[in-house]
Structures are given as C-alpha cells and as structure tokens.
Design a protein that fits this description.
The complex is a heterodimer of chains A (109) and B (138).
Chain A lengths: L1 H9 L3 H12 L4 H26 L6 H21 L5 H21 L1
Helix pairs in contact in A: 1-2, 2-3
Chain B lengths: L5 H17 L5 H11 L4 H25 L8 H19 L4 H39 L1
Helix pairs in contact in B: 1-2, 1-3, 2-3
The chains are: A mainly alpha (109), B mainly alpha (138).
C-alpha cells in the first residue's frame, strides 16, 4: 500500500519501495523481488496513468511520451537481461549518487 | 537546447530510465529528474509521462522475467490489491495539489531513496572486499 501511495503521488518510486519490502517481509530472493515488483507495479501504473490523463490541467506532449517510450522499451529489455549480471554494490552506489544529485537540483530549482 | 534535437534527448533519457526500470529499481527516479532538470518539463507532466512510459517498458521487461521464472506468483494479487488502495487516492491528490509542493515532496523522497541505496551499496561493497580478503588468506 505504501508503494501504491508513492507510485500514485509521484508517478514513480513504487518499485523502489516495494523491492526492499519484498526482500524483507515475504521474504523473496533479490532477483525475484525485482521482477515481482515490476509485475505488481504494472496494474498500479495503468490505474494512475488513467487518473493523470483524465485530470491533466496541462496537456502533455504526446511526442515526448512516444520518444521516451521508444527508448524505454529498448532499455526495459536491456535492464531485464543484465539484472543478474551486475554487481549489486556498484549499482546501488551509482544509483544512490544519481538520485542525490537529482534531488538536490530539484530542491534548489 | 535546440528544439530539433530534443527528440534525441527524449530517446536517450528513456533508454537510461528503461534500463533501470527493467531491473525493477525505479526508472522514474531517473526519468523524472532528467525531464524536469535537463529538459524543463513541469513536475506533474514529468510524472504523467513517466507513468505512460512505464507501461510499454514494463511489459517488455516482464516478458523476459516471466521466461526466466523470476516472478513470484504467490500473493501477487494481494500485493496488487493493497497497492491499488494506496495508488488511487494518491493519484487523485497528485493531480490537484500545487506542482511546487509536488516537486519538493518528490525531491525529499529521492533523497531518502538515495541514502538507502548508498548505505546498502557501501555495506555490500565492504562485505565483498572482506570476502575477497578471506578467500586470499585461505
């Protein structure tokens, strides 16, 4: 439910909350937790996307959606394939640094 | 940024975010800051784009995960149901509140995630170094 709140409110981040949750409470092995989180997130995102689209005050650029999605579909396949081959430690550190940089930039905007 | 190469940026940002998304660790955390900070998209619009982008991206990734039998089906519908109970009211709030608050809230959320990732990563890295040392001794 917490991951649902994150996903609906911010349109993102449900998976980030869900993965550690699955690892700790179910408990699932790391790779399974990541894949299962995706399966849960898909219906949540569909519902949230419908709400966003029906209530949008500012029309989004559909060309942007198209281009981002094109990149995303290729990336989705790459991500799913390399998941098991990556060193988790470095992945966490890189991802964490990127998030921190993005967050600080957004706060000072 | 010149408008004629903007589409390329959208594809590149989507590619990076999709790779992270496919691993199930929050591509939105990459996509949303990239869209707002680099490309000047509004916070709510960026979140909206992220939700739509996630649908085809997740479907592509899920097909591979399903083939490798990495999806735990037990309890899946329960998780989804609880997720929906949280997601619907949250989305209804998100489309109404001030976009500035939304951005600040998202930034704080990102910082918490960043701290969590960094702590986890450093721990795993230290552990792998320790294991290597012990393997070298033995």
């Amino acid at each position: 439910m917490i991951s649902g709140v994150a996903n609906g409110l911010f349109g993102a981040g449900g998976g980030t909350v869900l993965v550690p949750g699955l690892e700790r409470f179910i408990p699932l092995e790391t790779h399974k937790a990541h894949a299962t989180a995706l399966a849960v997130m898909l219906p949540l995102s569909i519902v949230s996307a419908i709400i966003y689209t029906s209530a949008a005050q500012v029309e989004i650029k559909w060309s942007a959606v198209l281009f981002v999605s094109l990149g995303g579909m290729v990336g989705g396949v790459i991500g799913a394939k390399v998941l098991k081959k990556l060193s988790a430690a470095w992945l966490n550190i890189l991802f964490g640094l990127f998030l921190a940089a993005g967050a600080i930039r957004m706060l000072t905007l | 940024m010149t408008p004629d190469i903007r589409w390329l940026w959208y594809v590149l940002v989507g590619l990076a975010a999709g790779t992270v998304s496919g691993m199930g660790i929050g591509g939105g955390a990459i996509l949303i800051p990239s869209l707002t900070v680099l490309l000047g998209v509004g916070q709510r619009e960026a979140q909206h784009i992220n939700l739509l982008f996630f649908l085809p991206t997740a479907i592509m990734a899920l097909r591979i995960h399903a083939r490798e039998k990495n999806i735990e089906k037990k309890g899946l519908w329960k998780l989804t149901l609880f997720g929906l109970i949280g997601a619907v009211p949250a989305a209804l709030i998100a489309v109404r509140i001030n976009a500035d608050w939304l951005r600040k809230g998202f930034a704080v959320f990102l910082l918490c995630m960043a701290a969590y990732e960094l702590i986890k990563g450093t721990r795993a890295w230290k552990k792998s170094r320790r294991d290597k040392c012990e393997a070298a001794k033995a």
